[in-house]
Amino acid sequence: MPDDHQLLERFRFGDETAFQELIEKYYRQVQTFSRQMGLASSALVHVMNEAFLEAYRNGSSWTGKTFRTRLFQKVHTLVIDQLSTHEKTEQQYDQKEIGAWFQTAQGTFTSEKASFLLHDLHDFSIEQTGEILHIDNEETKQAREKFLAQLSKHGRKTEEAQARWKETFAALPDEVTPQEIWSYIQKARKQRRIKIAQFIAVGGTLSILSLGIFLLISPSVLIPDEKGPEPAPMEMEETEEGINS
């Protein structure tokens, strides 16, 4: 598969299939990270659709080096928003599928868990992880160390945690396909074009009405009343006194 730079260059020049290839390349990573953060099926599809829609709308301004980081930045924001909006018990992925072992990894709403997932499981650098989480490098390191200490407290080694989290979540079935994500983007584009057309139509109508009102009230274009000719100014009559004098 071509690298992100090549795909984005093709996309900038109007090749829509290039963005479909980007969806194909990253949809499972996005899906896995969202699940690992604790997002349930009810919200997972929404997060994936909205994340790639955002990437589609802004991808032409992103570079090949930043595309994946910015995509995950949007995903993380959407995930936290969903987790904060609903009860934690409603958002947690089905424990029967992922196993009770992951109950030791608490802190769904914290950056500690996200820093571990992004750096240790999804191969982002500390700098990239901090950028995704909107924290500096030192805070990112501290957050990751806190999570590792939590795992250690429950008798989980770092290597074991990395392997178990990758294998278990990678084995789960897809909630949404790349084709469904692309269809969502196309539908959103169509709705946006309709709204823009309606806005232009309303704007045009208002402009015509404004012009009509202006023509009606402007003194410079009022039609004068039909009146008879103005009487000529009366000449001063010379009085006999004036003549005699």
UniProtKB/TrEMBL annotation:
Keywords in alphabetical order: Membrane, Transmembrane, Transmembrane helix
UniProt cross-references to InterPro entries, sorted A to Z: RNA_pol_sigma_r2
Gene3D superfamilies in UniProt: 1.10.1740.10
Membrane-spanning ranges: 196-217
Name of the protein: RNA polymerase sigma factor
Organism lineage string: Bacteria, Bacillati, Bacillota, Bacilli, Bacillales
